[in-house]
């Protein structure tokens, strides 16, 4: 079968279509014929060698990709809720010997796979699992009651956008930063207050403090503002990082890191996300569909910034 391969770390042009053995069906797994797979920042980091520590013991070419949609071909022993012919979406862990989602066939643990509800497009559904799960996990870590205030940095992006929509669904008051050109989008997603994005992290945080002088109850740092983001959070509040970085202990602020691979119940969360998408509370945001052979172009576009939604490779 064909898959996207990273033969060596480097710029987008190192990506190539490679031949890999079609995976076999394992107990408690489903074999999926992939229709589409999303391109995420993690894929760029893997391609550039920034995640080499996670690939110890595996031989290149590495296959990226953390979410996919497609059709179940086989259900392994122990799988009773999915069957051949089901249209599904899946979260995929690329840091295994099987590789990631960007391949014609993938074998995925059944507890990371759910049916796509009627009415949702098959290819576009590939953009929901990884970012949706991360936003779901981040809000779970924030653990805010309805009516509390949450800030979402980088809210116009795919992860930030899902965080805004899920926060709105949970009855939270949402502050979100973005460019003026993104204001209408952010309001549509559910932001109560749109905060101007500054040229620096410090300027963006100053804008949050102007909008919420006492500080927000929690902040989800999808834009990776880093340490300055603490300044937007009230004493005793919560900050959830979406990339690993260290923060100093200050003012009683609790810091969590959203790490989607460690999400405690991916099946239940994906089922909830799929239902919310089918009901219109969560939006499948697709920035473009590209054939798998154009993976390098997708990486270059995402690396350039300004992509609103997910670029999705089709197989």
How are the secondary structure elements laid out?
Blueprint: E1 2-5, E2 16-19, E3 29-39, H1 41-48, E4 67-75, E5 87-91, E6 105-109, E7 113-115, H2 129-142, E8 149-153, H3 158-169, E9 173-178, H4 183-189, E10 193-196, H5 201-211, E11 216-221, E12 233-241, E13 254-257, H6 266-279, E14 286-291, H7 295-304, E15 310-314
Parallel strand pairs: 8-9, 8-11, 9-10, 11-12, 12-13, 14-15
Antiparallel strand pairs: 1-2, 3-4, 3-6, 3-15, 4-5, 5-7
Helix pairs in contact: 2-3, 2-6
Entry summary:
The protein is an alpha/beta fold and 315 residues long.
Can you walk through the features of this model?
With 315 residues, this protein is of the alpha/beta class. It folds into two domains: 2-127 and 284-314, Alpha-Beta Complex (Quinone Oxidoreductase, Chain A, domain 1); 131-261, NAD(P)-binding Rossmann-like Domain (Rossmann fold, 3-Layer(aba) Sandwich). Helix content is 24%, strand content 27%. It has helices at residues 41-48, 129-142, 158-169, 183-189, 201-211, 266-279, 295-304, and strands spanning 2-5, 16-19, 29-39, 67-75, 87-91, 105-109, 113-115, 149-153, 173-178, 193-196, 216-221, 233-241, 254-257, 286-291, 310-314. The strands form three sheets. Strands 3, 4, 5, 6, 7, 14 and 15 form a seven-stranded mixed β-sheet that branches. The protein has a six-stranded parallel β-sheet with strand order 10-9-8-11-12-13, sandwiched between helices. Strand 9 (173-178), helix 4 and strand 10 form a beta-alpha-beta unit. Helix 2 (129-142) packs across helix 3. The longest helix is centred in the middle third of the chain and has 14 residues, at 129-142. The chain starts with a strand and ends with a strand.
């Amino acid at each position: 079968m064909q898959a996207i391969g990273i033969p060596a770390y480097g710029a987008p042009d190192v990506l190539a279509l490679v031949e890999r053995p079609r995976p076999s069906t394992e107990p408690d797994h489903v074999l999926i014929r992939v229709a589409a797979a999303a391109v995420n920042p993690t894929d760029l980091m893997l391609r550039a060698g920034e995640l080499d520590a996670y690939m110890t013991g595996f031989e290149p070419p590495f296959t990226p990709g953390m979410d996919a949609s497609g059709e179940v071909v086989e259900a392994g022993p122990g799988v009773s809720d999915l069957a051949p012919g089901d249209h599904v979406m899946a979260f995929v862990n690329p840091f295994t010997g099987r590789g990631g989602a960007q391949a014609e066939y993938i074998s995925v643990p059944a507890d990371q796979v759910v049916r796509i509800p009627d009415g949702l497009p098959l290819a576009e559904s590939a953009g929901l699992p990884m970012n949706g799960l991360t936003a779901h996990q981040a809000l779970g870590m924030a653990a805010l009651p309805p009516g509390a205030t949450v800030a979402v940095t980088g809210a116009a992006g795919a992860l930030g956008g899902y965080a805004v929509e899920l926060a709105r669904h949970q009855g939270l008051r949402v502050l979100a930063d973005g460019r003026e050109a993104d204001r209408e989008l952010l309001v549509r997603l559910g932001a109560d207050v749109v905060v101007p994005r500054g040229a620096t992290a410090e300027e963006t945080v100053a804008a949050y403090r102007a909008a919420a002088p006492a500080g927000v109850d929690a902040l989800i740092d999808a834009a990776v503002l880093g340490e300055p983001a603490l300044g937007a959070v009230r004493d005793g509040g919560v900050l959830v990082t979406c990339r690993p970085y260290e923060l100093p202990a200050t003012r009683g602020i609790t810091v969590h890191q959203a790490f989607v691979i460690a999400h405690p119940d991916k099946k239940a969360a994906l089922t909830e996300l799929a239902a919310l998408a089918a009901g219109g509370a969560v939006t499948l945001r697709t920035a473009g569909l590209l054939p798998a052979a154009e993976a390098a172009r997708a990486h270059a576009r995402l690396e350039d910034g300004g992509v609103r939604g997910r670029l999705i490779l089709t197989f």
